Amino acid sequence: MKKILTGLCIAASLLALTPGEIPKEVTLSGKNGGRVDGMPWHSRMLTDKVYVLFYVDPDKKDDNEAFIDALHQKNYDKEKYGSVAIINLKATWLPDFVIAKKLKAKQKEFPHTIYVKDKTKYLVREWGLKDDASNILIFDKQGKLIYQHDGTIDKEEMQKAFAVIEKNLNK
Fold first, then answer.
1. What angle separates helix 155-169 from helix 65-74, to the nearest 10 degrees?
2. pLDDT tens per residue across span 3-62
3. How confident is the model at residue 171 (pLDDT cuts 50, 70, 90)?
4. DSSP letters along 49-63, please?
């Protein structure tokens, strides 16, 4: 029994993202999902800019609305900063077509954000992201994870996230 538990802990730690490292390369396409425009999304796209990636259960979309609003107000230089919103479609009872319609509208409203659908909880499995939650990840220009938070972000944590972004924008 002890060997089984040890094996499970090792397996779980291999899935988890590690700050300061480039995560395992993943692609969302086909049955696993993809961008709202139908194109595949690759994690290797998280380079050349500082990226904030949101991985969100649609039922938790409002959990970090204050952070998202504050990000928009920062109006970071789009040459140095980008954002990705990946929606965990399997985490909700809402039909995929309803979410897809909302995402297309969001993509028009916020053209600088890349909207992506995860139809199979692929990033939950491959990166160990928290399921049924709102996850915030920040990547540096080389694609290394430099910040991670799941759940609702409070004001103090928001300031930490902004500091990480701003420090890395100027590198």
1. 30
2. 444 443 444 444 579 999 999 999 999 999 999 999 999 999 999 999 999 999 999 999
3. confident
4. SEEEEEEE-GGGTTT
pTM, 2 dp: 0.89
Number of domains, the chain: 1
Count other C-beta atoms under 10 Å from residue 131's C-beta.
16
Q: What is the CATH number of the domain that holds 157?
A: 3.40.30.10
**Residue 86 belongs to domain spanning:** 2-169
Q: What is the pLDDT of residues 117-151, one digit of tens each?
A: 999 999 999 999 999 999 999 999 999 999 999 99
Token pair listed for 131: 């399921």
- Rounded to whole angstroms, the Cα distance separating 140 from 51 reads 7
Contacts of 50 (CB under 8 A, 6+ apart): 76, 80, 81, 82, 138, 139, 140, 141, 165, 168, 169
Residue with tokens 């965990």: 88
Residue 170: exposed, middle, or buried by beta-carbon count in 10 A (0-12, 13-18, 19+)?
exposed
